[in-house]
């Protein structure tokens, strides 16, 4: 541990020392794999610098220094180049982890707060997507799976995201995440149109004022020529005024 209130001891010399110790115990291929796993638990996936609190995780199980990941989000050109992390688009796509630190550990920097197993890559860990507690899978297997509630803080979590899953699992998670993001994007495009249809008040039909000419037009349509004469004579007889010219 460093004395800077959260910076983790991850010097290159320490990794070399660990590699030498492990070389004595197994083959070089196994050692390299173990060292790689251990290294992932010590370094930021984006900046490749030593992890320091606050540490955040994404839905694909990468660990980052929070500041480094935010800087990546703000730098669109760099984010395009680092397509591997393009799925992190905003603060909503990351979760700040609550990690148990190893005070004087030489081979690990984190440990499970329940089983006290160190995070060296030998055993799997998951983060509870909600409260952010990082716990070993061994400890989680002993808990009631039907209860999605953190045993440490009793906060409800939505998912268990595996930290540093194998390549096959991460590929599957990436495909699922891309499909989910595509669906959200499609739904956002539909939503404004649907909202407009629901919220838009119905247009009132305009009722035109009656036109004085309209009755006469209708009368001319439905009245024949001989009826006009008959009507005119009738009007004349009713008023007592002769409609014939004088002298006829």
UniProtKB/TrEMBL annotation:
Region Disordered: start-end pairs: 178-248
Lineage, top-rank taxon, reads Eukaryota
Q: Which GO terms describe its biological process?
A: DNA replication termination
InterPro entries for this protein:
Rtf2, Rtf2_RING-finger, Znf_RING/FYVE/PHD
Task: Cite a GO CC annotation.
Answer: nucleus
Q: What is the protein name given in its UniProt record? A: Replication termination factor 2
Homology family: Belongs to the rtf2 family.
Q: Which organism is it from?
A: Rhodosorus marinus
The UniProt regions of compositional bias labelled Basic and acidic residues, in chain numbering, are 190-202
Q: Which CDD domains match?
A: RING-like_Rtf2
């Amino acid at each position: 541990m460093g004395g800077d209130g959260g910076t983790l001891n991850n010097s290159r010399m320490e990794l070399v020392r660990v590699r030498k110790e492990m070389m004595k115990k197994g083959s070089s291929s196994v050692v390299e794999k173990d060292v790689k796993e251990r290294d992932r638990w010590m370094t930021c996936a984006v900046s490749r610098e030593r992890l320091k609190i606050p540490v955040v995780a994404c839905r694909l199980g990468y660990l980052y220094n929070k500041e480094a990941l935010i800087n990546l989000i703000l730098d669109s050109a760099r984010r395009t180049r680092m397509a591997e992390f393009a799925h992190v688009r905003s603060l909503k796509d990351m979760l700040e982890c609550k990690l148990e630190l190893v005070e004087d550990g030489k081979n690990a920097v984190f440990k499970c707060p329940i089983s006290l197993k160190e995070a060296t890559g030998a055993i799997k860990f998951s983060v509870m997507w909600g409260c952010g507690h990082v716990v070993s899978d061994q400890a989680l297997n002993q808990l009631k799976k039907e209860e999605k509630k953190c045993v440490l803080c009793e906060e409800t979590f939505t998912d268990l995201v595996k930290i540093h899953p194998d390549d096959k699992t991460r590929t599957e998670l990436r495909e699922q995440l891309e499909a989910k993001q595509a669906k959200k994007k499609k739904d956002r495009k539909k939503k404004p149109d649907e909202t407009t249809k629901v919220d838009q008040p119905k247009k009132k039909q305009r009722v035109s004022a009656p036109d004085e000419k309209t009755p006469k037009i209708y009368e001319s349509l439905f009245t024949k020529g001989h009826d006009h004469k008959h009507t005119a004579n009738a009007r004349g007889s009713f008023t007592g005024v002769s409609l014939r010219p004088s002298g006829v």
